[in-house]
Amino acid sequence: MSSNHATKRASREPRSGQIEDLVPMMARLSLNRDTAMAPMKADTVDDQIKNVIQDLYQIQSATHGYAGPQTQQELVRLVTQLSGSLSTLSNNASTLQTQVPPEIIEYVDEGRNPDIYTREFIELVVKSNQYMKGKSEAFASFRDILAEKMVEAWPEMKADVDKVLGKGADTAPKTNGTTS
Fold this sequence. Notes:
By secondary structure, the chain is mostly helical. Helices cover about 70% and strands about 0% of the residues.
């Protein structure tokens, strides 16, 4: 842990470290939740998530090396610190402006990987785009065939048909730099 990160962590640690102090602190935090807050930046919430992970890691380390009463005081302090970190994260994350599709939330709730949802969604969009492109090309082909047959049946309408197709005298067909 860097010294800069250590100073940040030390400044937000509770003073006494007793569980009895946790209840009033939680009450103050829940009161703060009711006040209107400005939207948070994702980086701030990301840093708070990192703090929660760090707190969990410290608790894991302390429980792994449990050495009796002296470790108990440290665990009480760490759990209090974790509770504060989670409360801060909860308060600030609720003000974060995010728009997650409900389908992704359901996907995660079912224990599935959201990356799979994204891949399936992209495949569905590609399939739909291909379908729509096919329809568009079919209508363009139908338009051209209809125009050709109309000109064959009514030659006097050639100027009007060309105008509709964009081939009129005032609107030359667009080319990609080649001449025919």
